[in-house]
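re: ur question from yesterday

yeah so i grabbed the chain u mentioned. its 186 aa long if i counted rite. heres the sequnce exactly as i have it in my notes:
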Amino acid sequence: MTMTNCLRRQSMMLMRGLNRVTASGNDLHAGSGLGALLSLGEEGGALVESAIVLPIMLLISTGLLIFGIAVNNYLCLTEATSTGARLLAVSRGQTLDPCATTVTAIENAAPTLTPGNFTFTFVLNGTNYPGSTCSSKNTSSGAAANLVQGKSATVTVAYPCALGIFGETFSAKGCTLTSQTTELVQ
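ran it thru and got these structure tokens back, copy pasting raw so excuse formatting
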């Protein structure tokens, strides 16, 4: 049916309704005549609006939830890194592997994060130690010897995160949460 035929048909229905209303002397209100014709087809409007708006609202609320989880993971990671760095700063002369002691403290301080996903880097008195261990043969050599009172010890921890909603990831490489804390060795 062409647009012209459709408009012609609607105007004919409207005229018939007006003729009935004027012939019967009724007022124009819903339920009879023009009011009934004008309200025809509006019953499902709210359902259509809900069908359009609901998926958008669910997408936004799910996105907020995923972002909130990522922020929570970052706060947990930052607090755990700070706890581990404080322990590293006071462990001078007490352990042959200060990095492993710090890693254990960080993993225990962040129980909601997966321990196998952490990546550690330690800088003790200017010497870089990547990984979760930096064992020494005694406290006067290696990493244990680099814990010098008054010098800095830096702990950097990275943790992967996934910012994705309904199978769509916002970053091609994913995202990485990184926290770094520097303390003076006691």
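noticed a couple things. The mean pLDDT is 84. also The longest helix spans residues 45-90.
anyway ttyl
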